[in-house]
Write a structure and sequence with these properties.
Blueprint: E1 2-3, E2 7-8, E3 14-16, H1 24-32, E4 40-41, H2 56-76, H3 81-96, H4 114-132, H5 137-148, H6 163-172, H7 179-187, H8 208-225, H9 230-238, H10 247-256, E5 265-268, E6 273-278, E7 287-290, E8 296-298, E9 307-310
Helix pairs in contact: 2-3, 2-4, 3-5, 4-5, 4-8, 4-10, 5-7, 6-7, 7-8, 8-9
């Protein structure tokens, strides 16, 4: 088993290069640093494309850049708008040139980088949904800025319940940012039925962009912190349609975000084992390879072939 992507420390220095053989002692040391996931290549995953995955150096640059923004908020109670716009611009450029854009798992980063890695990934999921909803370039930029900064209030607030308003107040101080971006941070823990916080708003007062960020936040949290498979998280999010989120936003998320990531080992309805190779035209119908015959099949072109679960 060898590394398919390099491993970095919290300062962005390469710890292990791509192609390095992984030994149990190395895994133990990485776990101690808070790195709990590695992107590897073995006999099963050989040939799987990682073209849809944001490359590790680019992802790490985004994560470190955002970490710098959060530190500045904590130390100086300010944000440098140009720095945030630059980060948003890099993500928008990636989105523009890719039909599918997948983030690097948060568990691939050190514990120190996890908060900013989370925010970068939330932004990527949100942008996929925004594109699905037909947002303009400016709307996507405002969505990206709001999502990148959705948790920046945690650098200022004394309790978790206070961080949405703290973030809102900090972002809106800077006139360069659209007020919509500030409201994304303010509302990302609200709910359509009024059960959210900090204000308990409901109905149309809960902005669509904030709902997208909130769903992406929930999705990313469950993927990284609770290690629940994406398809199960999507099913859970669908159950919140009409109560926590409006149906149109939940539907867009379920269509825009893949249920099975490349490299996932799956069990087919006929009992055969397979591995997800890539995602092409349909987020829930990937290209798979059967483990017994090595046959490659696009599920988007074979509607009668069904996935029963993962293993």
């Amino acid at each position: 088993m060898t590394l398919a992507q390099p491993v970095y420390d919290s300062r962005g220095r390469v710890l292990l290069t791509e192609g390095r053989t992984i030994h149990p002692t190395i895994v133990s040391r990485l776990n101690a640093m808070g790195i709990h996931m590695l992107i590897v290549e073995d006999e099963v995953s050989s040939g799987i494309t990682l073209n849809d995955l944001l490359d590790m150096p680019s992802w790490m640059d985004l994560v470190q850049g955002l970490q710098s923004c959060y530190r500045q908020a904590k130390d100086k109670n300010t944000i440098v708008p140009k720095q945030v716009f630059d980060l948003a611009g890099k993500l928008l450029s990636e989105l523009q040139h890719r039909p599918v854009l997948l983030p690097v798992p948060v568990a691939s980063a050190t514990e120190e980088l996890a908060p900013s890695a989370h925010a970068v990934n939330v932004t990527i999921w949100s942008l996929l949904v925004g594109r699905m909803r037909g947002y303009t370039a400016l709307q996507l930029r405002d969505l990206a800025v709001g999502c990148l900064l959705h948790d920046i209030g945690k650098a200022l607030a004394t309790s978790d319940s206070e961080h949405p308003e703290a973030g809102f107040q900090l972002i809106k101080k800077h006139r360069e940012f659209n007020l919509m971006s500030a409201h994304i941070a303010f509302q990302h823990h609200e709910a359509v039925d009024g059960s959210g916080f900090p204000r308990g708003i409901q109905g149309a007062a809960y902005l669509e962009m904030a709902q997208i960020c909130s769903i992406a936040n929930q999705f990313e949290n469950k993927l990284s912190e609770m290690t629940i498979p994406p398809h199960e998280v999507l099913e859970w999010l669908m159950s919140l349609s009409g109560s926590r989120y409006v149906h149109e936003v939940v539907q867009a998320f379920s269509v825009a975000v893949p249920a099975y990531m490349p490299g996932t080992r799956i069990r087919m309805q006929d009992g055969r084992s397979a591995v997800v190779m890539s995602i092409t035209t349909h987020m829930q119908r990937p290209v798979i390879r059967y483990e017994d015959t090595q046959e490659v099949l696009s599920l988007a072109e074979h509607n009668s072939v069904m996935i029963s679960g993962i293993y």
